TrEMBL record:
This is TonB-dependent receptor. It is found in: Cell outer membrane. Keywords: Cell outer membrane, Membrane, Receptor, TonB box. It comes from the Bacteria. Its main location: membrane. The keyword ATP-binding does not apply. Pfam families: Plug (PF07715), TonB_dep_Rec_b-barrel (PF00593). Residues 64-172 form the TonB-dependent receptor plug domain. It comes from Hirschia litorea.
Length: 943
């Protein structure tokens, strides 16, 4: 609980105690968790504590009311009892906060339209490192809330306006996650929770998995020493059904009739694929914290803490799909090839294995010294690390089988080429595509006959990341004991070292000579498994079931597997910050006025490096593949950058009446670039026969996003834990980071521009080559490849504004209450789907709303919540990804058996909603996913 909240709650408790003292020896305890009245003539109370849902809401309201600037908060209802099973799921209940979901679980947050990378997340005021081994997640600073147990969290504060004494980095917000300390409790305190996680989606694994957490805290030696230990372990098995594509490509296909197109550019888009995925996931999460506090005097407190996080997740996925290599058809008016047709091709039978492992450790020291009655100092230091894939193995494996008929001679050498005899088409006009396959030209039982299936390729990739933050902060506060408007001055210095080292793995190879005799391959009927999507058999009748790791093991046994050397990249940021702020109290026309004015100065130096081999050749494999061949000599490249920033802030709060509060805030905030945008290396991202060649390079000289922010709000606190608020905000963002694309050549190790090896290639010499073959390399007499070269740059500015509406109401002593909020966000940086290049757009920009109803009385708590988020841009670039509007119902209920034990049940995604994403237009489906409902049933104990 924050100091402001503690003071407010202490005042309320004192008032309640005075009332009970006047009543005589009988005492009334108001307990929001049970709401019961207890009369006891044999004991004296010194406080009355409101707990449960009502107590949590009151704590959060008190923090909001007394804060400088715009602050929202969530407080734990009791020890080990955060409102939701996931921190992100709780944060989405706050006005202006939305979440992104992964595997039916909140993982990252968007605040006021600014996505995860624009929000700084701290743990007890400290910046925490982040790492991930999954290539699609990139190298990001964004905190993932799935990796921390909510049971070990005592509260979360969301600072929507900037403050000089709060870490920079969040244009959207700074979110501080607070954990318990032994001096927070009186004497011995303990809680434990045991629950069974029931996931209705599970197909492979356990339907019920355990989640256990507990905390023990004790003070001794006349309350001068305290120790706290908190532990949590969670296991979860789940399943995801997905229908989608690998993306949409502009101006791809042959014999395209463009007569219908009316989109201003004449461009059209064709899908890469149509896919049906079945994904099974098993996850284990462990969290722990050990805290030691020592107060040798009333004026000095020392805290030493160690926090550990372990996260391990394995996912296996099978996909039935097809590739539109040379699609034909007639695009609609927007240019979408809604009914693509492919002649003489093949079905693809994919398998994936994802392995994620992260380890986080943090050691910290905090000293709090009240030097005099008016002067206090704090010193805080922590050394925190996050490591993903710490063993340095491939974290992602992808393999493919395909229709084809090959013959091997007596020496086992491939003779002939594949006979692609399957015709197919798709229809993207509905919510999910329908597929028509004609495999009548294949012998036997057609496309799903194992005799007509051959090996195709393997692909391994992923990251190994070592991220470390060392941070030292010295701060002081002088409080004015005399008269005058100036009440306090805050000041401090902070040094932050942020260092990330990465190794990126990536091996791609066609291995059509792999013997598949020992591969376990089956075909699972789709049947009613995807009935929520409609008639699933109109997509595919079967899904292949086999293991990607087994496929690669066979390749290794047969001498066909190889591992390309990884590349290395890294960034180191050294930031020195100084801040000062002053607090004022005065009156205007009899109204109390509270003001805070401050400034923060930051000096940041950046160095970025890359180590990778130089491209020696491009190798033609076949009609669909070109490989990059490196020279085997790693070369290091280092570039430097830096910047200085001044970040002022000014906040005014006016108590217009005892119940009505008005606010104005101005602050300048900034957000640093994503880490992988600063790597100096040049990488080829796509090169295929007949398709545009793509490449990208980072930019260590990127300046941070910088925003001037204005907030106006009015809040009416009309009853205990009941209030209404309306707020308006504006943000003016400069140094907007976008991507520029130019046509450029890439030179090989000898300084010659790369050419196109697919031109005049001899298929007889390059039959799906799996090893470098000189006859298949690019030659000087072939056309030079012009790559579409993408580089991040600081481009234009952007404006964002919006409204926040919130009402929280307790219906007297009935036990019932409700919360409703709505956020409107608008910006001039919206993605223009009719513009082909140069879009500057904010990801995550969307309206959102919440509706919560609850009951809290007589030992019974119940709550049902609906969260809605409008469509938003998930990812920009030349081809965008939009997440469509989504709403979800969650509910929970509990019953207090006695003062020590409570039983509870929780349900998430009760109506099994579908998450759907598309490209420029709704018909350009990218993904439709369903996860099923999830329930938790358990027992909580408190002593």
């Amino acid at each position: 609980m924050g100091a402001a909240a503690a003071a407010a709650l202490s005042f309320a408790n004192q008032q309640a105690y005075a009332q009970t003292s006047d009543a005589g020896t009988n005492a009334e305890v108001v307990d929001g968790a049970g709401g019961q009245e207890i009369a006891d003539a044999n004991r004296t109370l010194d406080t009355i504590v409101i707990t449960g849902i009502r107590g949590s809401l009151k704590d959060a309201m008190d923090i909001k009311r007394s804060a400088q600037g715009v602050v929202d908060a969530i407080s734990a209802e009791d020890i080990g009892k955060f409102p939701d099973t996931n921190l992100a799921e709780s944060l989405q209940r706050i006005t202006g906060v939305s979440i992104d979901r992964s595997n039916n679980e909140g993982n990252q947050v968007t605040v006021r339209g600014f996505g995860p990378s624009f929000n700084m997340v701290t743990l007890n005021g400290r910046q925490m490192p982040r790492s991930s081994s999954i290539e699609s997640e990139g190298i990001t600073r964004s905190f993932n809330f799935r990796e921390i147990s909510s049971e070990l969290v005592s509260g979360v504060e969301v600072y929507k306006t900037g403050r000089a004494d709060v870490d920079s980095g969040g244009i959207g917000s700074t979110i501080n996650v607070k954990t318990a300390r032994p001096f927070d409790y009186q004497g011995f305190t303990a809680f434990g929770s045991v629950k069974g996680v029931i996931d209705r989606s599970v197909e492979t694994g356990d339907d019920i998995t355990p989640e256990i957490s507990g905390l023990v805290s004790h003070k001794f030696l006349d309350d001068k020493v305290g120790i706290l230990l908190a532990l949590s372990q969670s296991e979860r098995h789940s399943h995801t059904d997905r229908v989608g594509t690998e993306g949409w490509v502009r101006n791809r296909g042959q014999n395209i009739d463009t007569s219908n197109i009316d989109n201003g550019t004449g461009s059209w888009w064709a899908p890469w694929t149509v896919d049906l995925d079945l994904l099974d996931t098993q996850r284990k999460r462990q969290n722990g914290q050990l805290v030691l506090q020592f107060a040798p005097t009333d004026r000095l407190t020392a805290t030493i803490d160690y926090t550990a996080q372990r996260f391990e997740q394995t996912s296996n996925m099978n996909r039935q799909g097809l590739w539109f290599d040379e699609p034909t058809g007639v695009p609609d008016v927007n240019g979408t090839l809604v009914n693509p047709i492919e002649v003489t091709d093949e079905l693809n039978f994919w398998a994936w294995q994802f392995y994620e492992k992260t380890e986080g450790d943090s050691v910290g020291l905090n000293l709090d010294w009240q030097a005099t009655d008016t002067l206090s100092f704090t010193f805080d230091f922590h050394d925190s690390t996050s490591k993903s894939n710490p063993n340095g193995t491939n974290s992602e494996h992808r393999t493919n089988l395909a229709n084809g008929i090959y013959e091997l001679n007596e020496e086992g050498v491939l003779e002939g080429v594949a006979n692609k005899l399957v015709n197919f088409s798709a229809d993207f006009s509905g919510d999910i595509p329908t597929v028509t396959v004609d495999d009548s030209a294949l012998p036997g039982n057609g496309a799903y006959d194992k005799a007509n299936i051959i090996p195709d390729l393997f692909h391994t990739y992923g990251y190994q990341i070592d991220n470390q933050i060392q941070q030292a902060r010295f701060a002081g506060k002088w409080e004015n004991a005399g008269e005058g408007a100036l009440t306090a001055v805050n000041f401090g210095l902070q040094k932050t070292s942020y260092k990330v080292d990465t190794r990126q793995f990536g091996t791609f190879a066609f291995i059509t000579t792999l013997a598949l005799d020992d591969l376990s391959l089956d075909f699972e009927p789709v049947g009613d498994a995807l009935s929520e999507f409609g008639d699933a058999t109109t997509i595919y009748p079967f899904v292949p079931r086999y293991s990607a790791s087994e496929y690669i093991s066979l390749a290794d046994e047969q001498g066909l597997f190889f591992q390309a050397p990884p590349s290395s990249d890294g960034v180191e940021e050294e930031t020195l910050a100084a801040f000062v702020s002053a607090e004022f109290e005065t009156e205007f026309n009899g109204m109390p006025v509270y003001a805070n004015a401050g400034v923060r100065f930051e000096d940041t130096n950046v160095s970025a490096y890359s180590v990778l081999e130089t491209i020696q050749n491009l190798q033609y494999n076949h009609l669909e593949g070109i490989s990059v061949i490196y020279d085997g000599v790693p070369v290091a490249q280092t570039l430097y950058g830096g910047y200085k920033k001044i970040l002022p802030n000014f906040d005014v709060k006016v108590d217009i009446t005892d119940q009505l509060v008005g606010r104005f805030s101005y602050g300048r905030t900034m957000t640093r670039s994503e880490l992988d945008k600063m790597f100096p290396s040049t990488r080829i991202t796509q090169v295929r026969p007949g398709d545009p060649a793509l490449a990208r390079q980072g930019n260590p000289n990127l300046l941070p996003f910088e925003s001037d922010n204005f907030d106006f709000s009015v809040e009416y606190y009309y009853n205990e834990a009941s209030y209404v608020s309306v707020g308006y905000f504006q943000k003016y963002v400069n140094n907007f980071i976008g991507e520029t694309t130019v046509l450029s050549v890439i030179e090989d190790a000898n300084g010659n521009p790369l050419t196109d090896p697919s031109v005049d290639a001899d298929p007889a010499l390059c039959p799906d080559a799996t090893i470098p073959t000189a006859a298949c390399f690019n030659r000087a007499d072939q056309p030079v490849l012009n790559f579409e070269f993408t580089t991040p740059e600081n481009l234009d500015s952007a404006e964002v504004d919006g409204w926040e509406f919130n009402v929280q109401h307790i219906f007297g002593d009935s036990g019932f209450g409700a919360i409703a909020n709505y956020t409107l966000v608008d910006s001039d940086a919206k993605y223009d789907i009719r513009q082909i290049n140069g879009n500057r757009a904010l990801s995550g920009l969307s309206d959102s709303a919440n509706l919560v109803a609850f009951y809290d009385k007589n030992g019974i708590q119940a709550r049902i919540a609906y969260n809605w988020r409008d469509e938003f841009l998930l990812k920009g670039g030349n081809e965008p990804t939009f997440t469509e509007a989504y709403g979800q119902f969650d509910a929970n209920a509990s019953y207090e058996i006695n003062d020590h034990f409570t039983v509870f049940i929780e349900g998430l995604n009760l109506t099994n909603e579908t998450t759907r994403r598309h490209g420029r237009y709704r018909e350009q489906l990218l993904s439709a996913e369903q996860y099923g409902a999830r329930y938790n049933v358990g027992l909580r104990a408190k002593f």
